[in-house]
Amino acid sequence: MKLSELASFLGGELHGNPEFEVKGVSSPENPKDGTVIFCDKANAERLSSMPVAFVVTEPVDVENYIVVKDLRLSMAVFHRKFYPESHPVGVSDRAYIEEGVYIGREVYIGPFTYIGKGAVLEDGVKVYPFCYIGEGVRIGKGSVLFSGVHVYPRCEIGEGVRIHSGSVIGADGFGYYIGPEGIVKLNHIGKVTIEDDVEIGANSCVDRALIDQTVIGKHTKIDNLVQIGHNCRLGEKNIIVSQVGLSGSVRTGKNVILGGQVGVADHVEIGDGAVVAAKSGVSKSLQGGKVYGANLPAIEWSKWKKIYAYLLKIPELFKEKKHEDKDSP
User: If 222 and its partner were Cys, which of 187, 240, 252, 282 is the partner (CB 3.0–4.6 Å)?
Assistant: First the structure.
């Protein structure tokens, strides 16, 4: 592809040789001749002597480049166009499919996958090897379940959903009666509903509801190693980063971002557009449109030991202060 064609495709402003032939893409850390590199100004000028082209967001002092408004969006568009995913089609004779299963057109079911009775796999669904699809599960058009995904009975997955290896959808929620009679399990008879264009990373879990449904809203993106408890309802376009844990019945609005290792207590509500910084614990409901955080960034160990020693002295200092207040006239 010529650089002029790439500029037109990205809707960017071309600078340099329009006939420069783009053979692929490479990174600023591992640049390759004849490729295009999406990067910032400093990296472009550092690599200016190489026979490459650049996609940047501002003018740079190099020979061939394209200026775009949004670097990351342009990269996403480029990758999707020139490096499209390729999925197989067909049903393996080593898959086990129960009675009454509906299989649409252009579906792939890999070896050693089990499809339960009455399941529905709409057009273009891809289910890779070693998956379990329970009875009555419905999977919408174009959704992809990578190897080793388990979807428990009666769960519903929308269109264009991607679920990565090892994730479990619809396991029982963590619900028990605890009392004099002991610990008694509450059978979870609800389901999980995953709406359109959701992506769930590897080894994440979304628990089924006790009675109704656990819901993951449209366009929400969930990272690896995330736990979504029973009865949770996540809004549209949420970003849930790795190792987040949501207790039961958490509600989030639209465009919520939860940083890595955020923990949210049960029945908490988080409003539209709220951002919670990594490692924060959320014990009460949060208003939308604000940034929250209560984490402790790493500092030198010697400094932390001194700070910790002072923290231990705080109760004693309060006592002394109270005595001083009583003794003062």
Answer: 240
